[in-house]
């Protein structure tokens, strides 16, 4: 069992930045690839970014590439998502998720993740 707790969301003006954090507890954090997804009401949850268990590989949705940056600190059991140059369309609830590094799942496929946090709201005002 892995428990995930997101933090760092809030209200920010367009063009601003936020740093989201996801704290993990339970099983060995470094055994999991980590992802961030987001969801707005009435729409499906969508992939935002992912990072491999070692931090050596990162992946981004085209919509955030060049603006967002994912990182992790295995010593502190945390993963971060830095959101820069925010746009109104980035408004959503952001979720972190964990997928076993032994899985053959795809980083962008939410069904392949084993554990999810409760989410943190990001609101970008224009």
Short key terms for the protein model shown above:
126 residues, mainly beta, seven-stranded mixed beta sheet, 0% helix, globular
Q: What is the distance, rounded to the nearest whole angstrom, between the alpha carbons of the first and last residues?
A: 40 Å
Overall mean pLDDT stands at 96
Could you name the ranges where pLDDT drops below 50 across 5 or more consecutive residues? none
Beta-strand level of the residues, as a percent range?
Answer: over 45%
What does this structure look like?
The chain has strands spanning 2-7, 10-13, 18-26, 32-39, 46-51, 58-60, 68-73, 78-83, 92-100, 115-116, 120-125. The chain is an all-beta fold. Strands 2, 4, 5, 6, 9, 10 and 11 form a seven-stranded mixed β-sheet that branches. Strands 1-3-8-7 form a four-stranded antiparallel β-sheet, with no helix packed on it. Strand 4 (32-39) and strand 5 form a beta hairpin. It starts with a strand and ends with a strand. The mean pLDDT is 96.
Short description:
Helices cover 0% and strands 52% of the residues. The protein has strands at residues 2-7, 10-13, 18-26, 32-39, 46-51, 58-60, 68-73, 78-83, 92-100, 115-116, 120-125.
How do the helices and strands line up, and which of them pair or pack?
Layout: E1 2-7, E2 10-13, E3 18-26, E4 32-39, E5 46-51, E6 58-60, E7 68-73, E8 78-83, E9 92-100, E10 115-116, E11 120-125
